[in-house]
Amino acid sequence: MKARFIIFISIVTVILGLASFYVGARFIAHSPWARGHSGAVWMALAVFILLQILGPYLYRVFPDHIHRLFVVHWAVYMTLGVFACVFFYTLVADLLIALLIFILGPRIALVAESWSFVAVGAMATASVVIGAVQVAKGPRVYEVEIPIENLPNEFDGFEIVQISDLHVGPTLGRAFIEHVVKVANDLAPDLIALTGDLIDGAVHQLRRVIEPLAQLRAKYGTFYVTGNHEYYWGVEEWIAEFRRLGARVLVNEHAVIRKDGAELVIAGVTDDSAAQIVPDQASDVAKAIAGAPDHAIKILLSHRPSGYKKAVRAGFHLQLSGHTHGGQFFPWSLIVALAFRYGKGLHRYEKFWIYVSRGTGYWGPPLRFGVPPEITLLRLKRA
Predict the structure, then answer these.
(1) How far apart are the two ends of the chain, measured CA to CA in Å?
(2) Residue ranges, the chain, pLDDT below 70
(3) Distance (Å) of CA 345 to CA 140, 189, 263, 355, 374
(4) How far apart are CA 68 and CA 73, in angstroms?
(5) Cα separations (Å) of 40 from 24, 27, 76, 295?
(6) pTM, two decimal places
(7) Residues 305, 348: one domain?
């Protein structure tokens, strides 16, 4: 494990170093001030890399939100967000300049480069400011109706609140959880689905922070499945903690909800990463649905949206997922759209529905540019 960690840190350092060298070189080339203070530019980038390497370690040592090093956690992730935007826009600008030179000749280069520097600065600033404002506003409620064939009349209008990808930890604390719980309870749902990646920290670090989740209220209860981040922070302890908080933890299993003689199945699978960390918890859709009533409508809670074809073969009608954050902030939303067939929102595959949450919190940079956080109210309707 230690060897893997060292290899991982080494790879991250190399990637950050190369990206920082590229951004620094372009900044110096474009800006007269930077050319006269190149040492300061390289020093700032070196500090940025050091922050990104030491930040996770400092969080493990000083996780408490009231500790004075809490400000360091914000510095680590905010600078990462700023750098990500600057890197992407600089890369796009250089590609566009190369294209213009190819089409119009090298004379256009001087004009294009001078304007591109201004454009990169303006777009990166706008992305960070708007993204930070969207985070400050908190998650909005998305109402989604899902028509399902043969849905029993008793479950027509059945409402599920989905909360996903809170990532409570370095920069999100108890006040945020209290707000999410209040919004969810005010919706008065029939059921609450927690679809993984709720934490970024160990139980002893975050027990007090997530305590308000015990106040979640729904007629038929709260159901929870693990995400990949729970496996990074001691999944067994987190499963026990969520049970203590009153959630029904679905580890490759299901529950049957009965209403006036009709039945609805809620099943849950572990995250795909479980097989590498806790082999006996390997994700198993068939096991999760084994023994369920054949005639019942079946809903699967699965952190990642990538396993929808397995869900279809197992006989599910609807899958609720998260994991992608919808990309969280532009331009990474474009990458998610390429990486996942279903990256956010409601989609139909054959007669099967899948809803992918944009996430209720955020991971890493406290930015949500173009992809606002959400608490989802899903309403089942008889097709």
Answers:
(1) 51
(2) 1-5, 63-69, 109-111
(3) 14, 20, 26, 5, 11
(4) 10
(5) 10, 12, 19, 68
(6) 0.92
(7) yes
Q: Which domain holds residue 71?
A: 2-136
Helical residues (DSSP H) of 63-221, grouped into ranges: 70-104, 108-137, 174-186, 203-210
Encoded amino acid at 219, one letter: K
**What is the SS3 assignment for 351?**
coil
Under 8 Å between Cβ of 108 and 344:
no
Number of H helices and number of E strands within the chain? 13, 12
pLDDT at 210: 95
Q: What is the pLDDT of residue 74?
A: 87
Residues 79 and 195 in one domain: no
**Does 149 share its domain with 127?**
no
pLDDT computed for residue 109 by the predictor: 66
The torsion angles phi and psi of 158, rounded to 5 degrees, stand at -60, 130
Q: 258 Cβ partners below 8 Å, 6+ apart?
A: 264
State the DSSP H helix or E strand holding residue 357, giving kind and residue range, or none if neither: none
